[in-house]
Design goal:
Arc Repressor Mutant, subunit A, alpha/beta, globular, 5 strands
Length: about 110
């Protein structure tokens, strides 16, 4: 199968999350899953936790403000779906590289 369109650029992520999965309590059986990609997690962290503007956060991730806005919107929808419907929220995957101050030229993960 041929891949169409432009290849996705790597998004810069500061570090791996401390927890990769959140599970609801009080729900019997195995709940459905909502998957949050690493770039979506980073967008939430920058915009909602660190309270950066979309322009500042987009610059931090080396993507356009429009792309950042789209990633953030999808992340918020996924997170809301997981909370409202009692799903397990897993943080994994996506097109990203881990960056740190000690390593200014990150390698793809």
């Amino acid at each position: 199968m041929n891949v169409r369109g432009r290849p996705k650029k790597y998004r810069i992520v500061a570090r791996d999350p401390r927890t990769a999965q959140f599970s609801p309590r009080g729900r019997p059986g195995r709940p459905d899953e909502a998957e949050l990609t690493m770039d979506e997690f980073e967008a939430l962290r920058l915009a909602d936790y660190r309270a950066l503007t979309q322009k500042e956060a987009a610059k931090s991730m080396h993507i356009s403000q429009q792309t950042f806005s789209r990633v953030l919107k999808k992340a918020r929808k996924t997170l809301a779906d997981g909370i409202v419907n009692g799903k397990t929220i897993k943080i994994q995957g996506g097109t990203y590289v881990i960056s740190s101050r000690q390593n200014p030229t990150p390698k793809p993960v």
